[in-house]
Amino acid sequence: MKRIAIITNIPSPYRVDLFYYLQQNIKEGEIHTIYASRNEDNRKWEIEESKLVNSHFLASYTIKVPNGHDTKYIHISWGIKKILDMLQPITIIGSEYNPTALQALQYCRKKKIPYISWTDGTLHSERNINLIQKLLRKYVIKYASAYLASSSKAKEAQLFYGAIPDKCFISLLTVDIEKYKVQTKERERGRILYVGSLIKRKGIDLLFRALHGVKDDYTLVLAGNGPEEESLKQLAIELGIKKRVKFLGYLSQEELKLEYAKSSIFVLPTREDCFALVILEAMCAGLPIISSEYADGVYDLVKEGENGYIIDPYNKEQFRNRLQEFLQYPLKADSMGKNSLKYLQQFRFEKVSEGFWDVLSYVEHEV
To answer: Does pLDDT of 308 surpass 90?
Structure first.
């Protein structure tokens, strides 16, 4: 039987849902997923175990490396060759440029089977990588048979490292759209929602500073937890916005859907994100978006002036003006939120899976 092996780091809800869809819809053969590790200690993801079909977990240990505003997790795994020998795949799709993916590439070169390099990374999200990491990317790009990118910006990075345009395919990062759709009864005017970790990388301090001086009524709701919570509470006091900010902590998916349903504006002030799926989740709830230009997926998600705005979070005046615009003109915000719902079609599994089928067809017939 023809087998395709997908190699990635850990099972995330959005990837598990996509892999399950691919497994149920492959026309011939089967797809197996190999994970370098089970989880990371900064994640509280809810995984549907029943969807972990044809899943294999490698033995590994994890190295945590402070990385600017965040922590990078590197999984050192072993046993990949044994699993690949058992599966005997005709093609391997390897995620990113980590040790497990490099072992898989070497396996493909030795066995003379196609290797597809798949990435979420962008030039901005990886702007601080060192020379060795850059050389590894060039090495993988050089010997891969084709390339799969999770966004337009990720494809741009692959091209930068030497990918041939005709061998590049895009499968946009996505969530199960129906899972995140909400029934909205009545939104709370002026309720601004942020969803994500409370870490410096997410730029919540920049959002606080943009809100400082806003005269319109608003409530900022922060759904998430993290090490910056106490310093953010102190900053809210210093800026005089403490009474307007609510810290909700970590929320389950169902609790989060209620927040999406109640809110009227979604904001993401991040300093760096290689995609930012929370924007798509907010779009599923019919919310207008104000997103940092450093959320690299925003260029595939937000149509400027139609379902939201892309801003420079360091430009306090620009950021504040966009917030005030939605607060002062709620009907305009509502209209943009309705446009968000219109743009969901390209993120459905049947659409994003086309990139997978296309790249697999390419290596089958061209390599």
So the answer is: yes
> What residue ranges in 121-255 does DSSP mark as E strands?
146-149, 168-170, 191-195, 219-223, 245-249
Nearest Cα to Cα of residue 137 among 94, 92, 84, 76 = 94
The torsion angle over the Cα atoms of residues 280, 285, 287 and 289, rounded to 10 degrees, is -10
Mean pLDDT, rounded, of the chain: 93
- The backbone torsions φ and ψ at residue 202, rounded to the nearest 5 degrees and listed phi first, read -80, -10
- Whether 87 and 32 have beta carbons less than 8 Å apart is answered as yes
What whole-number distance in Å separates Cα of residue 137 and Cα of residue 126?
11
Q: What is the pLDDT of residue 290?
A: 98
Copy the structure tokens of residue 162: 């030497």
Tokens representing 314 are 């360091």
Which amino acid belongs to residue 300? D
Write out the two tokens for 60: 């590994």
Q: Angle, nearest 10°, between helix axes 277-284 and 253-262?
A: 60
DSSP letter, residue 187: P
In this structure, what token pair is assigned to residue 301?
A: 């998600």
Q: Across 102-261, where does the E strand assignment appear? A: 115-119, 146-149, 168-170, 191-195, 219-223, 245-249
Banded model confidence at residue 126, pLDDT cuts 50, 70, 90? very high
Reduce the DSSP state of residue 41 to 3 states and report it: coil
Give me the mean pLDDT over the 97-114 stretch: 95
Looking at residue 69, what is its pLDDT? 62
Q: Are strands 70-78 and 59-67 parallel, antiparallel or unpaired?
A: antiparallel
Where do we find the tokens 């790249």?
A: 359
What's this model's pTM, rounded to 2 decimal places?
Answer: 0.92
**Are the beta carbons of 250 and 224 closer than 8 angstroms?**
yes
Nearest residue to 269 via CA among 240, 233, 294: 294
Partner residues linked to 292 by β-bridges: 311
Beta strands in 152-216 (DSSP E): 168-170, 191-195
CA-CA distance, 60 to 36, in Å (whole number)? Answer: 7
Q: Is 365 left (phi over 0), alpha (psi -120 to 50) or beta?
A: alpha
Plot region of 5 (φ>0 → left; ψ -120 to 50 → alpha; else → beta): beta
Express each pLDDT in 251-293 by its tens digit: 988 899 999 999 999 999 999 999 999 999 999 999 999 999 9
